[in-house]
Amino acid sequence: MTFDYDLFVIGGGSGGVRAGRVAAETGAKVALTEEYRMGGTCVIRGCVPKKLMVFASGYSERMAEAEAYGWNVVKGGFEWSQFWPNLRAELDRLEGIYRTNLARPGVEIFDQRATITGSNSVKLADGREFTAKYILVATGGAPFKPPQTPGIELAGTSNDVFLMEDLPKSILIVGGGYIACEFACIFNGLGVETTQYYRGAQILRGFDDEARGHIAEMIQARGVNLHVGCDVMAMEERDGQIWVKASNGDETVFDHVIYATGRKPNTDGLGLETAGVELGRHGEIVVDGYSQTNIPSIYAVGDVTNRITLTPVAIREGQAFVETVFNDNPTKVDHTNVASAIFTQPEYGAVGMTEEEAADQEEIEVYSAAFRPMQNSFIGKDERVLFKLIVSSATRKILGAHIIADGAGELIQMVGVAMKMGATKEDFDATIAVHPTMSEEIVLMKTPVRVT
Ligand code: NDP
Fold first, then answer.
1. Which of 39-53, 66-80, 320-334, 380-394 has the lowest mean pLDDT?
2. Could you identify the atom of ligand 1 that is nearest to the CA of residue 175?
3. Same structural domain for residues 21 and 123?
4. 136 and 15 within one domain
5. Mean pLDDT of 182-204
6. 100 in a domain, yes or no?
7. How many domains does the chain have?
8. Hey, CA dihedral for 222, 227, 231, 237, is it positive or negative?
9. Can you list the positions of beta strands (E) in 230-354?
10. What is the pLDDT of residues 123-147, one digit of tens each?
11. Closest approach atom of ligand 1 to CA 181
């Protein structure tokens, strides 16, 4: 049987673009369709604009520190109207690069929505229908807001942040995960009066307990008005602002409310049921280790599969899919020990297990140091960094590493390499420190703070 395309990719985000480009480079005839902007969540309304906002918001703290180091800082407020066009321009530039990278090896791009009409066919919004030997679904995820909360339609999500033409004076962030904590720090750093409500006892559920406590303390010290064990009961529009009644009894008015209460895989209305593709409990596409669905010609990568919802993982999955299907080299992605960073201020980088997970599994030694780095102690700033290693008593291998410090995202990448190589505590001990740095502590922690 002949097909119009060897591969039809639905979704122009990190996973889809990588798979489409690399498949085309093997000589395959590839089409890719995207209903919004090329680049997906990461480039257009996620990692990239978020990180640029993190940079922008970090200057307020830097300026305060610079004064303590003797600089005469000319005080001036942050101007969203100056930053925002630059941000938009950068995203346009990146989108252009994505398009060029696809077009160069010959990927045909359709800027519209597509639905699956069968195991080897797709239909575009304009009515055209194509056949493909393989279909790759890489449609990502979308923010989820709890629909039952009265007034929920008044609240925005992370998607709306990147479309804001003005900076609010006050904001409420709801949630305690990656996105909520990052945005709370960003807005706080930009001078917005920032409140965060999290329904549980401590933010960042699933991360290391000691690190969670540390980060909560540090972000509050920087000015985020964090309420844990607190949720929104109702919202109403009042005089152009949003009145919020909280479960702790507070009634407060905010300029903006942003919900960062998780994301859901984008599988609605894609025609997956028509093709008989199996979905999981959260609407995610169920795939095997090769990203293949129960329909042999249909694969899925990235957030839509709800495995590890991180850009670099989606990219790896896209690459592995091409190796498997187009290079005759069956390749699985190793989803263990994936390092990630939460771009709070200070940042939190983590790889491997939490202390709690590791202790459940075997006897461990915990090495942990929380201290004021030289840069802070010189200016009397209380903010402490945290370096923590979880070590297997039996094998001596590092099972987990947790770093809270400015630049922790950069540091944890290197620890991730060591852990992938199976590094032991003795390998860390044998490494001579780089002095004076704060990260030297990671090779200098001699005595466990506890053995559990
Ligand atoms: P998360 O799943 O990390 O956090 C969702 C938060 O919302 C949790 O605190 C959760 O509480 C809370 N929540 C869920 N439902 C409700 C509800 N009905 N009412 C009140 N609160 C609720 O999702 P995010 O949206 O923050 O991020 C999604 C994913 O995106 C992350 O898991 C991560 O993989 C990725 N990401 C990665 C980043 C990075 O690498 N730096 C940055 C941003 C996103 P509870 O804990 O009680 O369930």
1. 66-80
2. 7
3. yes
4. yes
5. 98
6. yes
7. 3
8. negative
9. 232-238, 241-246, 251-254, 256-259, 263-265, 298-300, 340-342, 347-352
10. 999 999 999 999 999 999 999 999 9
11. 26
